TrEMBL record:
Record's compositionally biased regions (Basic residues): 522-528
Cofactors: Mg(2+); Zn(2+)
EC number: 5.6.2.4
Catalytic activity: Couples ATP hydrolysis with the unwinding of duplex DNA by translocating in the 3'-5' direction
Presence of the UniProt keyword Ribosomal protein in the record: no
Chain segments carrying region Disordered: 509-528
Name of the protein this chain belongs to: DNA helicase RecQ
UniProt KW Transferase keyword: no
Residue intervals of the Helicase C-terminal domain: 222-373
Keywords: ATP-binding, DNA damage, DNA recombination, DNA repair, DNA-binding, Helicase, Hydrolase, Isomerase, Metal-binding, Nucleotide-binding, Zinc
Start and end residues of each Helicase ATP-binding domain: 33-201
Length: 528
C-alpha cells in the first residue's frame, strides 16, 4: 500500500532490519531519515544513546552516492569504520593518522563509488586536494556530527568547524544533517546560522535521561567519598571518574588501584599508546573504571557505563550534561555523582581570570560557571533544573538526590549578613585580600596566627558566627556565590561583594539556604 513516500520509508525500514538487525525506529529517527532521504536538511538534537548514527547511516545507504560524515573524533574513526564493515557497510575514513598509501586507497574507493560512508576529520577540508576529491565523486549527503563544536561560546568549540559553512556554498544540492547531544537554545541557533541551515527541519528530542540518577554532594574528602560510592553501590561496575587536572587523575587512579578497584588513568599527557590501550581496555573489559580529564569520552560508545563521577566541578551545565550522559546508554539505572566544594569555585574563577581572550569571553565563561553553581546549590529537582537549562520543561523526577531526600532549608539571612559584613570590614584594610578561610576563622572566633597578625581578633565581627559550624559557613559562602550575592576574584580567592550584596546587608532581601548534610559537616570538622 501507499505511494512513493511509503515506498521510501519502506526502504529505510528494510535497511534498518537487513543491515542493522533492528526491528523498528525509535523516537524521531524515521522522520529524520525520511527528511534526509528526500533531499532536505535536518538539525538534530538528541541525547547520547538516542540513536543519532542511524539518522545519517541509513540515508547514506538508501541514497545513491557516498555519505560524508564530518567528525572531530579522529581516535574513534577506525572503530566506527570497523563496526560498520562488520555489518557489511562499505565505510572508510580520511584523517591525519593515515599515511599516504592508506589515504590513496580510500580515495580510490571513494572515486570508484565503492563506499557507502566516508568519515572525514574537519581539518581535511582545509586541504584543497580533499575538496577537489569530493568534487570528483558522488556525495549522497553531509553529516556534521558533534555539531555543537561550531558554537564559539559553547563548551567544545573547534575552529575547523567554522569552515563547514562552505559545504553549502560548494555543494548546494547535497542534503546536510547536523547532529548533537548537547545544545542550549543559543547553541542551537548558532549551529543553524553558522552552518547556514536556514531551510532545515529541526528535530529536538527530549534531553531527559530518566535512568540516570543525578546526585551532587558537598566535597569533604573526595577520594574517600568516591571509594564509598563505588564500594556501596557500584562494586564491579564500569564507570568514568572525571578530574580537572592530570595530576589528580593520576593520584585518583592510583588510590583506587591501592584500594582494590580496577582503574586506569586517561589524560592528554599520557603516551598515545598508553592512552589508546586504556581506552580500548575500557571498551572491551567488564567493570573497569577510567579516571580521566574531560579529554576522555566524547563519542565513546560503551552501553554499560554504570556511573560517572565528577571529583571537580564541571565548567558548564552543558559539559556536566554531556559528561554525565555517558552513563547508562543501555537504559539501565546509572548514577551521575558530583562532589563539589568552595575550592572548586576559587580554582575555576582563577582559571577564568587567567584565561586568554577578551572580557566578553571571560564573562561568558563566568556565566557558564554561575549556571553550574546554581545547579549545585538548588533545592529544586536536579533534573528540572538541568532540562530547564536546555529550555525543556519537566516535573520533579523522583530520581535525583533532592527528590529522594529533599534538602532542609533554613533562613540564612542573618548568617549572610554576618558574613557579608565581615567582607565589608576586611575590604577597608587597604591592600590586604582575604579568602573564605580567613573570613570563616574570624566568624568562628579562632585566634589563628593569621588572625592575630592582622589584628582581626579585634574586629567587632570576631566570633559572631559561633552559632554555626565551619562546614555550615562554607555552605553559606557557596550559596551566596551561587545566588550572586558574593563573588570571588584573584589568585587567592578573595571574596568581594556584588551589586546585590547591599540588598542583603540592608535587610531588603531574604536568603533561603540549603542545610549542609550532617555527614559532610562531620567530615569537614574532623579534618579541621
Ligand atoms: P548516539 O550517537 O545518539 O549517542 P547511537 O547512534 O550510538 O547513539 O545509538 C545508541 C545505541 O542504540 C547503539 O547501540 C545503536 O545501535 C542503538 N540503536 C539506535 N537506533 C536503534 C533502533 N532503532 N533500535 C534498536 N537499537 C538502536
Ligand atoms: Zn528530581
Amino acid at each position: 500500500a501507499g505511494g512513493p513516500e511509503a515506498g521510501e520509508a519502506g526502504e529505510a525500514v528494510q535497511t534498518l532490519r537487513r543491515v542493522f538487525g533492528y526491528d523498528a525506529f525509535r523516537g524521531d529517527q524515521e522522520e529524520i531519515i525520511e527528511q534526509v532521504i528526500g533531499g532536505g536538511d535536518a538539525v538534530v538534537l538528541m541525547p547520547t544513546g538516542g540513536g543519532k548514527s542511524l539518522c545519517y547511516q541509513i540515508p547514506s545507504l538508501v541514497r545513491p552516492g557516498v555519505g560524508v560524515v564530518i567528525s572531530p573524533l579522529i581516535a574513534l574513526m577506525q572503530d566506527q569504520v570497523d563496526a560498520l564493515r562488520a555489518l557489511g557497510v562499505r565505510a572508510g575514513f580520511l584523517n591525519s593518522t593515515q599515511d599516504f598509501e592508506e589515504r590513496r586507497l580510500v580515495e580510490a574507493e571513494f572515486l570508484a563509488g565503492e563506499l557507502d560512508l566516508l568519515y572525514l576529520a574537519p581539518e581535511r577540508l582545509r586541504v584543497e586536494q580533499t575538496v577537489q576529491l569530493l568534487d570528483r565523486g558522488k556525495i549522497s549527503l553531509f553529516a556534521i556530527d558533534e555539531a555543537h563544536c561550531v558554537a564559539q561560546w559553547g563548551h567544545d568549540f573547534r575552529p575547523d568547524y567554522l569552515m563547514l559553512s562552505m559545504l553549502h556554498d560548494r555543494w548546494p544540492d547535497v542534503p546536510r544533517i547536523a547532529l548533537t547531544a548537547t545544545a542550549t537554545k543559543a547553541t542551537h541557533e548558532e549551529i543553524t546560522s553558522r552552518l547556514r541551515m536556514d531551510g532545515a527541519r529541526h528535530f529536538v528530542a527530549s534531553f531527559d535521561r530518566p535512568n540516570i540518577q543525578y546526585r551532587i554532594a558537598a566535597k569533604s574528602e573526595p577520594k574517600r567519598q568516591l571509594l564509598e560510592l563505588l564500594r556501596s553501590e557500584h562494586a564491579g561496575d564500569a564507570g568514568i571518574v572525571y578530574c580537572l587536572s592530570r595530576a589528580s587523575v593520576e593520584k585518583t587512579a592510583q588510590f583506587l588501584v591501592d584500594n582494590g578497584i580496577a582503574a586506569v588513568p586517561y589524560h592528554a599527557g599520557l603516551d598515545a599508546r598508553v592512552r589508546a590501550a586504556n581506552q580500548s581496555r575500557f571498551l572491551r573489559e567488564d567493570g573497569l573504571v577510567v579516571v580521566a580529564t574531560i579529554a576522555f569520552g566524547m563519542g565513546i560508545d560503551k552501553p554499560d557505563v554504570r556511573f560517572v563521577a565528577h571529583l571537580d566541578l564541571p565548567k558548564s551545565v552543558e559539559g556536566y550534561y554531556q559528561e554525565t550522559g555517558r552513563a547508562g546508554r543501555d537504559g539501565q539505572p546509572s548514577t551521575a555523582w558530583l562532589a563539589y566544594g568552595l575550592q572548586d569555585v576559587v580554582q575555576q574563577r582563577k582559571m577564568i581570570d587567567g584565561s586568554e581572550g577578551d572580557d566578553a569571553h571571560r564573562r561568558r565563561l563566568a556565566a557558564h560557571l554561575d549556571a553550574m553553581l546554581a545547579m549545585c546549590e538548588t533545592v529544586e529537582c536536579r533534573r528540572v533544573r538541568l532540562l530547564a537549562y536546555f529550555d525543556q520543561e519537566s516535573g520533579p523526577c523522583g530520581n535525583c538526590d533532592t527528590c529522594l531526600t529533599p534538602p532542609q532549608t533554613w533562613d540564612g539571612t542573618v548568617s549572610a549578613q554576618k558574613l557579608l559584613s565581615t567582607v565589608v570590614r576586611l575590604k577597608r584594610e587597604r591592600g590586604q585580600k582575604f579568602g573564605a578561610g580567613q573570613i570563616i576563622d574570624i566568624l568562628l572566633g579562632r585566634k589563628t596566627a593569621k588572625v592575630i597578625q592582622f589584628d582581626h581578633d579585634g574586629l567587632s565581627v570576631f566570633g559572631i558566627g559561633e552559632d554555626l559550624r565551619e562546614a555550615d559557613w562554607r555552605g553559606v559562602v557557596r550559596q551566596l556565590l551561587a545566588q550572586g550575592l558574593l563573588a570571588v576574584e584573584g589568585d587567592y580567592g578573595t571574596l568581594v561583594l556584588t551589586d546585590s550584596s547591599g540588598e542583603v546587608l540592608r535587610g531588603q532581601r531574604q536568603v533561603p539556604m540549603r542545610r549542609e548534610p550532617e555527614k559532610a559537616a562531620r567530615a569537614a570538622k574532623a579534618k579541621s
